Amino acid sequence: MKHVLLLLLGFLWSARLTAIKAAGVSGIPIHVTVSLSVLGIALFFTVVAIRRGSWPPTGRAAIVFYILSGLFGFTLPFILETAVAPHLTVFVFMIVIATMPVFTLVLSTALGIERPGIRGLAAIALGFVVALMIAWDTASGGMAQAGANWTWIALALGVPLLYAGNTLFVASRWPGRTEALHVAHAQALIVSAAAVCGAIVTQTIGDWDLVARNPAAVAAIAGFEGLALLVYLKLARDHGATFVALANYVAMDFAAMLGALVFGDRLSWLSFGAALLLAGALAVNRARPDRAGNEADVSQAPAAR
Hints:
Layout: H1 2-25, H2 30-52, H3 60-84, H4 90-97, H5 100-111, H6 118-139, H7 150-156, H8 158-172, H9 180-201, H10 215-239, H11 241-245, H12 247-263, H13 269-286
Helix pairs in contact: 1-10, 1-12, 2-3, 2-9, 2-10, 3-8, 3-9, 4-6, 4-12, 5-8, 6-12, 6-13, 8-10, 9-10, 12-13
């Protein structure tokens, strides 16, 4: 089941990025896209909470967790993604995002949070080869033709760094008696409240009518991001940071297909070969280790509670 969720997360991430680029191409300002998307996510989770009669816990540790994970795993990377996505092809940006598993591996090993075994390292290595294959497929037409710019690529690297650090934080500091839905709801409420206050203070709330340029794109961003947030939190809590980071490799292949369908980005046989290699990487990780820890997979180390 966890691999099904991993595939779903990869699709949601790539679909969200495609929608973000569509909103940017339509001329919707970044602050409008971010504000209205998070408001939509907060509204959705609030409706779910009312129907379930279950609200996020409000203990001190939980509130601190909501704020920090919402800031570094939702607000900052979401703003940065929205800013850089219109300047890069879906392919190129997903290559940048695909460095997250490597950053996660380095940080988790250095901090002693998780200890990937041979299968885990093999899965990450194969996944990174997938990233290189798609990068080559994209760049073979020339960086200029691919819509890439090294300045924007450098800025985009902040996104996987933020996600890697936050994923490790979520996996190791998850508060007790708190569901993934609770965390997603609390994050959305905090971020949406901040977005509304920011729009009022900066007097940009009047720009919100610009969403009429492509309301479907903003609605899609809210839907894909909300569901992705929920799946991401559940996987990070239950299976660890390094495992959930593999969703970035899944997202790359979905992004390749979506970029070709929606924006006419380059897609060749090399990308299909990368998809097959990705399937091999997931198959390598799927094998379960023995209890002694020999050849442990990437989710060997459980998230601290």
